[in-house]
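Possible regression after last week's pipeline update?

I re-ran a chain I had predicted before the update to compare outputs. Posting the input and the new output here so someone can diff against the archived version. Not blocking, just want to make sure nothing changed silently.
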Amino acid sequence: MQIRSATLFIIFGALFAICTGCKGLTKDQLASVSQANSPKYTIGVEAASSVQESIQNLLPKAGIKQYPDLITAYFALQVGDIDALAYNETILTHTFNDSTSSISYINNDVNMPEEIVIGMNKHSTIPDLKRIINKFIDSLNAAGTLNELNEHWNIKSNTNSLISTKEYDSDHVLRIATSADVPPFSFVHENQIVGMDIDIIKLLEDKLNIKTSIIKTDRNKLVNALKNNEADLIISAFTKAESIQSDIEFSKPYFIGKTAFVIRQKESAKEQPLSKVPQMTYLEPKKPDEIYKLADLSGKNVGVQSGSTLDEQVQQFIKLPRIQYYTNIPEMTHALEQRELDAIAVDYSVAETILKHHSHFSILKDRLNKDEFGIAMSKNSPLKASIDSCIKVLQSKGEIQKIKEKWSQNKSAVRAIKQDWNGTDTLIVGTEALYAPYEFYQWGELSGIDIDIIYTIGKMLNKNIKFADMNFDVLIPSLINEKTDLCIAAISITEERSNFIDFSIPYDKNESVIVVHTPQHALEKIGDSTGVLSRLFQNIQEWFN
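New output (post-update):
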């Protein structure tokens, strides 16, 4: 009886192994596309795309999963929901262009070209729209313009438009939907949508002598924008799919590329720890939503302050971040607290201040860029030489460092410098008092590192100081329009900003960092007592503040 039971158990186990092996326990890693023509393998594609239809025809035995956009499909690949991802080769190359992407290309031994077209609203108020667009594409082809654009935007470092923007006096507005998440066709750079598709839109404006309105739309909602008459055209690395041809019109192709297939790389690199947690090797397995390093933020919601340069840094160091803009740091911190954001990007000193009031936050060990802060002023300001001289003196005497140390201690007894002199005239200084420890309100008064620095310089120059508190993204326009004489708000010195305004020599240097929720495993390991002490300390601070 025991032998019979054992035999049945072995047979059942073998059958179970055979069945489960079909879903990946015994399958080989894909080395070529044709190998995927088996029910053992699942390929991820963009929904309602030409790639989906091509795979169904060329690889009928393979499983197919549809995803609304590249980011979602990429994470499905990383967590093992699919065995391969099929997408436009040009977009993949520009999106995942270094070793941190965790993907490998496999041999594409099937013929799968991909035509990128312009989608058109069948009910547009613009008459004969399809003929106009096709004639436009023909003219660009005949002039070699499409080849020129293709060569320009396929250089990965290019972010500058090849076609200049013009103004057109027209009663008609051509509404164009784009997703702005498919480099090099359309993507966001320095708060502007750029790319090959945007240059084509500018050429279309010029050809038709018509204004255009770009409507940024989620990729999976582009077709609905046409069907609901919210847009006239789709220009967004859009492909011709038979499944939607009854709803919209398609132009001639303006770009013919090919489909590439990628698989997930095998794990090799060890994860780096958080700065607040000494060792994280004991934290496996980690939860999917826990963030340990910059790579974990790929495709996640990262908050940055409007008008700052941090969005550029986030895009430089994080793959496909979903950047959310906030007018000030408190709003952004609250969004992180409520888990509306996965992380926020701030300067290191600001992050330290945030952590003093949020014991469950951590600073990632990975850094972004190092910034130099300067006092901003209008172009050719007569104040520049004297401001630079004051900063040199204060630095040589260590006074600026003393001011920083004073505010970094964050004691309730700390107060801002008071003006105790009568100056010859008054300097209007713009700032944004929501960026502790640089500038913030304490006891109803402006306080912080930058405030003390300006008062100290004012005394040295015998100038009265009057602060104008405003949103960060208004500071530079206030100088250009001569509403303020100086601006100080931990403003990073950049070449782009220097085209419009002047800066003093740097008065401070700081690192840009990412703040996240401390992973739960780390909190549990550290122990609850730490959390109790942090909360107690926080309550004491609030009582005195």
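Follow-up from reviewer: compared with the archived run. The chain has a mean pLDDT of 81. Marking as no regression found.
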